[in-house]
Amino acid sequence: MTTRQIFALLNSHIEGDEDQFLSVALQVAAQQAREGKPDDAEKLKRLVQKARDQRRLGAAAGGQTPIPMARPRAELQGLVESTYPKTTLASMVLADDVQNRLARVVRQQQERSTLRDYGQKPATHLLLVGPPGTGKTMTASALAGELRLPLFTVRLESLFSRYFGETASKMRVLFDQIAQTRGVYLLDEFDAIGARRGDPNDVGEIRRVLNSVLAFMEEPNSTDSLVVAATNHVEILDGALARRFDEVIEYVLPAPAAARAIIENRLSRFKLNARVWSGLAPALEGLSPGELVRAADSVAKDAIIDGTTKISADTLRSALHDRQTFKGKFRKNSDQ
């Protein structure tokens, strides 16, 4: 331990700040791992986990589990946003396969101490791929809500645009926070840094960042943070990077039955006659969950203003048609 770490431990003990005390202990564990002492690092991590489990059980007995406030490091202010979502997986309409795989990740995180007793580690790196609006970002929120962890949303495009030339060093600061502060970290638009090496449009800075990310994903995660990378363009990701994820989960546009479930869930406070769905399938086709939610919200707002609790088929069909028209124009403009 360094003198600085000893000071930090004593100060947190004096101030009664258990979260800071345990955070410093995890920093020491990470240092031990880097110095080639994995057994000592593992013992420290287990002790920290035991302390947190005991505190969680004690809080549960009182009826509430507190969540410590966590914020990005000062160097990342403006590039990383921290929130405490209350979303859960049960509030999402997901394909059975996706639902089951995410539930398995949550369970592994919750039982990580048991897994380590048998020489196993929980899944900590997820890659979510699929078209825009299919629920990738919301999934990160749901995972944070399920695990009662802060969600740190990293805007990679902003990181490049504001600090081009310093991006690799900023990424190192981010990696240090992931290792030291447990949370769910969403790396949105991951293709910004994960593009294939050797691409004709590649530049040295991006290649250095990609290499640093590859190295980071091989490092031990001392806090069991969950890193969730999301991309709409999996086809351009470097193969070496994709292989380092514990889970690669694909999101697709919802089938008619799933689309209907999304709308019904969104309009649960209103009366929807069964005849509303007759002949509505063409209007649902090709719309993402995000677009379906916006159509439902549009209808809901009109109903609230009109003081009615009923949703007509024509009203819903019109809202869906508007989303289809907008999507068609957007696609046409993007092709030009």
UniProtKB/TrEMBL annotation:
SMART domains: AAA. Residues 122-255 form the AAA+ ATPase domain. GO terms for molecular function: ATP binding; ATP hydrolysis activity. Signal peptide: none annotated. InterPro entries: AAA+_ATPase, AAA_ATPase_domain, ATPase_AAA_core, P-loop_NTPase. PANTHER family: AAA-FAMILY ATPASE, ATP-DEPENDENT ZINC METALLOPROTEASE FTSH. This is ATPase AAA. The lineage of its organism: Bacteria, Pseudomonadati, Pseudomonadota, Alphaproteobacteria, Acetobacterales.
